[in-house]
From TrEMBL:
InterPro entries named in the record: TAT_signal (IPR006311), WD40/YVTN_repeat-like_dom_sf (IPR015943)
Protein name (Swiss-Prot/TrEMBL): Uncharacterized protein
Annotated PROSITE patterns: TAT
Amino acid sequence: MSLSRRYFLESLTAGAACSWLNVRHASAAQPADGLETFVPTRAITQGPLNHWFGYYDKREFDPTGTRILSNEIAFEGRSPTIDDKIGVGYVDTSDNDRWVPLGTSKAWGWQQGCMLQWVGDKGERVLWNDREDDTFVCRLHDLSSGQTRTIPRPVYTISNDGQTALSADFRRIDNLRPGYGYDGLADPYVDQRAPSQSGIWRIDLATGKEDLIVSLADVAKIPWPDGSRHEEAWHYFNHLLINPSGTRFVALHRYRPEFDPKTLQFQGNFVTRMISGNLDGSDLYVLDPSGRTSHFIWKNDEELTMWTKPAGQVEAFYTFRDKTREVIPVGHEKMPTNGHNTYLNVGNEDWILNDTYPRGNTPRQTVYLYHVPSDRRFDLGHFPSPVAYRGEWRCDTHPRSSEDGMQVAIDSPHNGGRQVYLLGVKELVEKKA
């Protein structure tokens, strides 16, 4: 994707990170910028570099909850180019928030970073995507040995046990959904609407062996509920996620009705449906055929909670049971807008961690917890989002929780540049448990 197509703003200057904020700002003491926090909140990264983690469905915390992954970069406010490199590392909160560098990446975007995440549940390995010559790859770093191994295909999501990964074509994503793919490499199938050589790959992280398990040609042939086909549209996969036990995956199958492969220009919105399948690509099932699937998370091995609009119902959060037509509304009054939802790893999927997009005259992003059994919502904070952070290089909070569910990390640009903030929710969660 050319820089001229996507460039808009000048670089922003990062500000210094703030220290611990008050547990709650009284209305009389509320800062002019609209910042309010209701739980202990502090920045764990500092300028002049900008820091952020990226997407909400990746493992950011190690098992101890003290090593918190992050990306860092010197500029903001424009699309990445093939020459832009980010640093990857972690903050050690047990050692005065010391920054520990692990490597660099030339395969990244503002929304999802470079897919940086802990591998497995032992806190021994970290992976991220990178570019090597004319190939996107994955770096697998072992903290004990200090050695970094290269997997010859970039990773989108991994199983909880750290053995299996799934990949999609980031070159194609970059053309059809700027900001979610990687710049710098041309899609060899750019002139094909649903290529049989592109789709979803399964990767063995121990050996690097890869297999194309579902092609775009395969999924484009699956009819929609009304019997219609859209093989004349331009298809791609986005947002892959494996269930907790590593037996099933889901992916968003998306298409754009119009796309010019010569100019890389498209018109109109994309259409989305969710498919599920076994990790070998078998037993595919169209779980949400609405065309409106958005953010989602596995609740357990059989259920997913997502923002969508089932036939005849309002757009909201619902829980779907895999391979069935069972759909249950979730928190419609307390979670009325789309957000980045996950479940805290406490209790019986009782707590949903979520956020909102900036809206209205005072654009703020709210991070909150929703307690499902009591139907109660607890706002953790309202974080101002400057108008410069819009479009492709926006800074969504993308809340992520620690393995024990007692800490939440967010990305926020409210203090002069994007930084990572840590929110303590232990008192709230334990009080309501």
